[in-house]
Design brief:
- By secondary structure, the protein is of the alpha+beta class.
- 28% of the residues lie in helices and 31% in strands.
- The protein is built from eight helices and ten strands.
- The strands form three sheets. It has a six-stranded antiparallel sheet. A two-stranded antiparallel sheet has the order 1-2. A two-stranded parallel ribbon has the order 3-10.
- β1 and β2 form a beta hairpin.
- The protein starts with a helix and ends in a 9-residue tail after the last strand.
Length: 255
């Protein structure tokens, strides 16, 4: 282990970075050790002081290298425990051209979809919910909010809102919202989605098991029945290190 530590963290073992800050060569060495499997998921890094001594750099330099890797999701820090190599997350490619549920997407990939319920009940609607779903102030809105996991790994946070008439008993939703809506003849047939990049706040980062400030892709979905009626308003946050969204583009007429 001492030889391994020397090879990864020592000044002699570091590949130089031309005209770059000193911390980058240390960062690159640790990154290569992780990508090459020398440092494995769950492995603990030496203390900041030990790395500084091995690398012959200041603790400030070590801190910058480590924080850069934490920001990239390669390392995680646990208060009072230290710094560890982050678990590897299998990236998921998600099409933007099909209206499918998380459960259906994971089933296609042979992955087990799970939910951790955050909220499930009937509430007074917010102004945004009233406007989007066409509700009045005296109506109630069904909210189905949950953390979505695949094979035990948290991937997304979904917060769906529907009219009470559409989902009078939110507790009837088991693993798939769309499966529940299909039973009632209310499964949507089309949707408009808006995507935006953002950074995770502390609360959502803890749910997804990543550091606060990690990249997330926010998706706002408004789904419709064949009649044109809005049936679902969902806001989701997807882990930036786990999802790739794809859309097929075709050349329009006259181009």
């Amino acid at each position: 282990m001492d030889d391994l530590r020397q090879a990864i963290f020592s000044r002699q073992g570091r590949a130089p970075v031309a005209d770059g800050p000193l911390y980058l060569s240390l960062r690159n060495n640790i990154s290569k050790a992780i990508e090459g499997g020398v440092l494995k998921p769950g492995d603990a890094l030496p203390s900041e002081r030990d790395i500084a001594e091995l690398a012959d750099v200041s603790r400030v330099t070590v801190r910058k290298a480590v924080q850069s890797l934490v920001g990239d999701g390669l390392l995680i820090q646990r208060h009072g425990s230290g710094t560890f190599v982050a678990p590897r997350v299998e990236r998921v490619q998600q099409s933007l051209s099909s209206l499918t549920s998380f459960t259906e997407d994971m089933a296609r990939r042979g992955m087990r979809a799970e939910s951790v319920w955050l909220a499930r009940g009937l509430y007074p609607p917010s102004p945004e919910e009233m406007l989007t779903l066409g509700l009045s102030a005296t109506d109630r809105v069904a909210r189905v909010e949950r953390l979505r996991l695949a094979n035990g790994t948290p991937l997304a946070i979904e917060r769906a809102s529907l009219a009470e008439a559409t989902l009078p008993d939110p507790s009837s939703v088991e693993n798939s919202l769309y499966a529940c809506l299909k039973k009632n003849g209310n499964r949507p047939v089309r949707a408009i989605q808006r995507l935006s990049a953002a950074l995770l706040d502390k609360e959502d980062a803890e749910l997804l098991g990543v550091p606060p400030g990690s990249a997330t892709l926010n998706i706002e979905r408004i789904a419709y029945l064949a009649s044109g009626k809005v049936i679902e308003f969902t806001r989701s946050r997807y882990r930036g290190d786990a999802y790739d969204f794809m859309a097929e583009l075709r050349l329009g007429d006259g181009r």
